[in-house]
Design a protein that fits this description.
InterPro entries: NosD_copper_fam, NosD_dom, Para_beta_helix_rpt-2, PbH1, Pectin_lyas_fold, Pectin_lyase_fold/virulence. By secondary structure, this protein is mostly beta strands. The chain is built from two helices and 35 strands. The longest helix is centred in the last third of the chain and has 12 residues. The radius of gyration is 24 Å and the shape is elongated.
């Protein structure tokens, strides 16, 4: 009975409904005191193919699982100018599944899955071929991926918390000109994966406790023209795993208590590390392949043991961040058991004096004597 522009208010209670479909009606569906929409494991709760739809204040639970269909709490296909705000989603397969939809706002939602295994879990917020979407102030946990974006442009991901997800806190591919600001990615299976994208801005994010034999805080794979500034990488197995980066700038980030702070593979070009803090990492930099035109300059290193005779807070001796032992561990991972031995310290010192196995061009010519404040 509702017409475009109408508001439907749903009173508090439990409603056992699924496959609620909205076509060609710009409706505002608003819950009062979080009414429960129980899909009864029968499939999708809301399927929307309309412009200007707003859904807010609902608690949606028990979304069906399938290996052939992508069931979601809210499925949008071909929708424009939508808003999904202040909803609670629990025991869902996919949370918000958004396809070919533009100019949307996803704000203030809480999404939780069962987090059993990847095969039976979907993504909390999943965007495909959707542009100019703002995702902010959401809390997602125990899904497969917290936020997934594929073929999405001009999106803003702001102040979200993604924790304890089975695979990635954030995962995006083929998605250009997006910004990620003020998010927390903590205790996920493999942190954040950024793949095959360009013109990326990542600022003021926290990457923490993404720990495991195949885990990292941030994976960069075939990324170009990106800026990473004022991020904190703490307690990750590998803070940044860079494979195929071009014109990427790391400016004033903190790398603290990681296994590897930076691990660079072949194919990295014109990547710069400027005024970052490398604090008590097991290895500051691991490097495979040639140095190319990548640079380290003006960083603070807790392992730097040089001096500053002219008192300008810049070390008078250049710092070599790649240790011989990190080269050995790359070749023979089992050697990590020798990490704290005196023999390794002596071996690293001899390589620093006369580099043979590590890239002799890879130096920070202006190491800072004091931690950089930003």
């Amino acid at each position: 009975m509702a017409q475009s522009g109408d508001t439907i208010s749903i009173e508090e209670g439990i409603y056992k409904e699924s496959d609620i479909t909205i076509i060609n009606k710009s409706l505002h569906i608003k819950g009062i005191n979080y009414p429960v929409i129980d899909a009864g494991m029968n499939g999708t709760a809301f399927a929307i193919k309309a412009e200007g739809v707003t859904i807010e204040g609902l608690k949606i639970i028990n979304i069906g699982r399938s290996h052939t269909k992508d069931y979601a709490a809210i499925l949008l296909n071909g929708s424009q100018n939508f808003t999904l705000k202040n909803n609670i989603l629990e025991n869902v397969f996919f949370g918000f599944l958004i396809e070919k939809s533009d100019n949307g706002l996803i704000e203030g939602n809480r999404i939780e899955g069962e987090g059993i295994d990847q095969a039976n879990s979907g993504n909390a917020i999943h965007l495909w071929n959707s542009n100019e979407i703002t995702i902010k102030n959401n809390h997602v946990k125990e899904m497969r991926d917290g936020i997934y974006i594929e073929f999405g442009k001009n999106c803003k991901i702001i102040n979200n918390v993604c924790e304890k997800n089975l695979r990635y806190g954030l995962h995006f591919m083929f998605s250009d000109s997006n910004s990620y600001i003020g998010n927390t990615f903590e205790d996920n299976g493999a942190g954040v994966a950024v793949m095959f994208s360009k013109h990326i801005e990542m600022k003021k994010n926290l990457f923490k406790k993404n720990w495991g034999p195949a885990s990292y805080g941030l994976l960069l794979k075939e990324i170009s023209d990106a800026t990473l500034e004022h991020n904190i990488f703490e307690d990750n197995t590998i803070a940044v795993n860079a494979d195929g980066t071009t014109r990427v700038e790391f400016i004033e980030n903190d790398f603290k208590n990681n296994g590897y702070a930076i691990k660079v593979h072949g194919g990295a070009y014109t990547t710069s590390f400027t005024r970052n803090n490398f604090l008590h990492n097991s290895f500051d930099v691991g490097y495979s392949g040639r140095l190319n035109d990548n640079t380290f300059s003006g960083n603070y290193w807790t392992n730097y043991s040089g001096y500053d005779l002219d008192k300008d807070n810049i070390g008078d001796v250049a710092y070599r961040p790649v240790k011989l032992f990190s080269h050995i561990v790359n070749q023979t991972p089992e050697a990590i058991v020798l990490l704290r031995s005196l023999f390794i310290d002596i071996m690293d010192f001899s390589e620093k004096v006369s580099p043979i196995f590590t890239p002799k061009e890879l130096i920070d010519p202006h190491p800072q004597m004091k931690r950089i404040l930003w």
